[in-house]
Amino acid sequence: MDPHPQGTSRTLRNTSRLLLLDHRDRLLLLCSRDPRPAGGRWWFTVGGGTEEGEDALTAAVRELREETGLDLPAERLGPPVWTRTADFTFDGRPFRQWEEYRLLRLTAAETAAVRVDPGEAKFGHHWWSVEELAGTDQTVRPRELAVLLPALLRDGPGGAPLDLGLVDDDDDQAAP
Question: pTM (2 decimals)?
């Protein structure tokens, strides 16, 4: 399936993302900001772009290792639970990004072994509870996390990933 429409002037990018939960059902989010002088900050899930020749699962395993230091087998990652296409601008360049989200629950020992690479989360990282996500005024992507995560925690992955549609992340009022 090609999630990218023909004729878009945006840079196209495929990503594989992880909903990385600790043993207390807190979600690890990393923080970044647009490098432009007035660029805003936002919190995002572990994961990133697929490289040449990689499928989404292989990319998720690699990104997990690069961003957290955890080297877990692909079998530990759940099936895709959400997908979305996000339009956004970063450093003045427009992107259209296809995102696939997988759920990964860590043990207490694995949580203790997480070492977030500061180069991947230049503005910090945090283990967020559902309550914190619901109450924050900071920009979180995908913005529906506080609404979608409780059902996922309660019911587990469904038979097919939930498609969150095409969203414009530039509509966010990013915190400075």
Answer: 0.89
